[in-house]
Amino acid sequence: MSKSLAQLVPKIARSSLKGSDSKQVLIWQNWDHILGPFAGKVTPHTITKTPGGTLIVHADSNTALHIQYHEPQILERITALAGADQIVRIKVIKTFMAPVSASAVPKATKTAPRAKTLEDALASLEKHLVIKK
Hints:
Elements: H1 5-16, H2 22-29, H3 31-35, E1 42-47, E2 53-60, H4 61-69, H5 71-82, E3 87-95, H6 118-128
């Protein structure tokens, strides 16, 4: 049974963020709740340490627009969860990666071995040509 990215983020966050800021870990663990339907399409990157931090995330262009549009609601959820003024802004770094299902990945095909020299290539080509005299 395969798991979505949204289901894996909290588990990965717990193991990779040990010793990190507890509010950041809390946000990562509640990623599904905070991002809602976009959780599987947005990857958390970091939270800046400046006063009134910035949550930096990675998302494709389409999802980035949704995140920017819903930024006030997302920030409200973060504030309710992690406390006032933990994060005051979301910065989206656009990526070109889109979720790909296993069925969309083309299967590998067997290709002919590469010729080592020009002569080998010409000899191989000659075998496949029908020469009329």
